Amino acid sequence: MGEPGFVRNRGDKEAHARFPLGRAFACAGCGIRHAFATQRNMRIHAAVAVAAVVLGVVLGIDAPSWAAVVLCIAGVMAAECANTAIEAVVDLVTDDYAELARVAKDCAAGAVYLMAIGAVAVGAIVYGARALALLGL
Ligand SMILES: Nc1ncnc2c1ncn2[C@@H]1O[C@H](COP(=O)(O)OP(=O)(O)OP(=O)(O)O)[C@@H](O)[C@H]1O
């Protein structure tokens, strides 16, 4: 991950070394690509997101509904990125079984599941209400 020769360590921060905004975005992009490449769940979230967008277009949902759908898609994927980050830090610290490692990874996974459950609920409300309206019910 990251470009060779491209680091920003604690010494750089203490010296207030300049860190171009473009580099910061590039780092974020690296993180997102890493999550896609290594996490099957991230690819599943992306497939569900595409299906949700297609369904939104087909059903013709309104602007506030789109806002809720987009926020849910971003929220689930952001949670998966954070989960991936926590897993990486835990694995960096220990290869051995450790109760705190288990707690950290389980809680990180729990955050993704909570966000996903919320997204499913929002989808049921948004698409369900629109489908009922189209059916004249
Ligand atoms: N070092 C460890 N010590 C204790 N338990 C661990 C450790 N590493 C992993 N586990 C347990 O195994 C589970 C799966 O961990 P793993 O690193 O394989 O994540 P994963 O399968 O990629 O999870 P996710 O589906 O959330 O991305 C954790 O939720 C935790 O319960």
UniProtKB/TrEMBL annotation:
Compartmental location: Cell membrane
Keyword match S-adenosyl-L-methionine: no
Membrane topology note: Multi-pass membrane protein
Presence of the UniProt keyword rRNA-binding in the record: no
InterPro entries: DAGK, DAGK_sf, UDPK
Highest rank taxon of the organism: Bacteria
Family: Belongs to the bacterial diacylglycerol kinase family.
Protein's name according to its UniProt entry: Diacylglycerol kinase family protein
Organism encoding this protein: Adlercreutzia faecimuris
